[in-house]
């Protein structure tokens, strides 16, 4: 048996999973709810939520910043886009989108246009100009002969298939394609083919080996069957791009349902032109990720290099400038990222942060000291118990916080301050369910479901409660104590002292701590000093929290350290 006096003056590891309770070098907590870890290692009650608007249903949030004076937040649901400016809805756009899952939609912005891609729909573009907002389908560059500069490729079902061109009875722009194997079916109608360097469109299917096609170019009849022919990479049959980005002034498309591991890059500065031409430096680029494993591109990120995140690994193209003859694509890590929901990778301190395929890891893709190889460091090593089917992610650079919404309705929040080695996960809980999170103009916006209604809200440091209606409780519980490098069998606290600043409410082990009355006077920011309570309870099992600090009162609280005076036995 012995006495101890121990102070915890840093909570830099945040809430830590039970399997790490025996470690002596962890500055963590067993529970961290509705509090943020400060750059100093202390704790502060999270800001409340301000209600912006009630919305008809669950939605996703997309920032659309054109300039410092033109900044919009897009609230997207169903076939509707509500446009907000300064937290006021200014217009509503009705789209033609049907049968889509917005949670899988990806997007990228260039100047005053956002490009949206889906796995089952032609890419769409939303543009803001002097006349307002306009949405339309993406269109490839049209040549004088009415052919388009869409990428073409060969698919597996074309192997060993030859085409013989013969005359059609319709007119000089039509022909009949006959194959040596069964190939054609109704879903080929509308497909664009590249045969004998001419683009053709399938008009009708006559049989499994014969189709009628048409073209706007003059053509001849080769005397032999043609085996060297291609199909448009993007179509209703083959699928449309599932990911999009811009890199070195090229529009980049990644993956379709029929070509999940392919990447297409437009001509430099010409985002509708995917003609590979003769391989000049500014011509379009097409490449395939070659590996012994099946890779499906999850998303693509333009950073220091072009990063390609797939279902089973992380690749990068490091060339600068990037040209058709200078493409060095390499797989660096083998984590894999989720493909079922679009969780946009976040740029944090020069690294790319993404959710792993397992949904249990938050990884940081960062170059090594020689800038030659990427590592995928685990940012939630101590806190995987908080990761439960992530459904949305966003990083607020101004507050140094990464927000990850879980399907269960809470948010795991990473407070990350590399300069002071703060890497602390905690949990945000509200009276309802968080559904989506996005950062726009340094503010963190969320979609929240309360009862059966949905709301657009944002965190606001001037709000103590959520939406002036819903109270929330902050709660932190001690990490199991290690004394003199021992894990004690029994432990008892005689006194707990909490050093605070700007604090107006505190409960220690459910006992209210008395705070001087002047603290509640107008103009007072709160109490600064030590708040102490003597605990006369019995011994406890040391795997249980020795102390819990909490309050459900909607008042400020900032905790710098906790000191415990007690005795223990081993």
Provide a quick synopsis of the model.
The chain is mainly β and 570 residues long. Helix content is 0%, strand content 47%. It folds into 3 domains: 2-45 and 474-569, Jelly Rolls (Sandwich); 55-139 and 239-393, Neuraminidase (6 Propeller), CATH 2.120.10; 152-232, Thrombin, subunit H.
Can you describe what's shown?
The structure is a single chain. With 570 residues, the protein is mainly β. The chain has three domains: 2-45 and 474-569, Jelly Rolls, CATH 2.60.120; 55-139 and 239-393, Neuraminidase, CATH 2.120.10; 152-232, Thrombin, subunit H. It is 0% helix and 47% strand. The protein has no helices and 48 strands. Strands 1, 4, 5, 42, 45, 46 and 48 form a seven-stranded antiparallel β-sheet that branches. A seven-stranded antiparallel β-sheet has the order 15-21-18-19-20-17-16, with no helix packed on it. Strand 13 (124-129) and strand 14 form a beta hairpin. The chain is elongated and about 100 Å long.
What characteristics describe this protein?
570 residues, mainly beta, Jelly Rolls, 7-stranded antiparallel sheet, Thrombin, subunit H, 48 strands, single chain, Neuraminidase, 0% helix
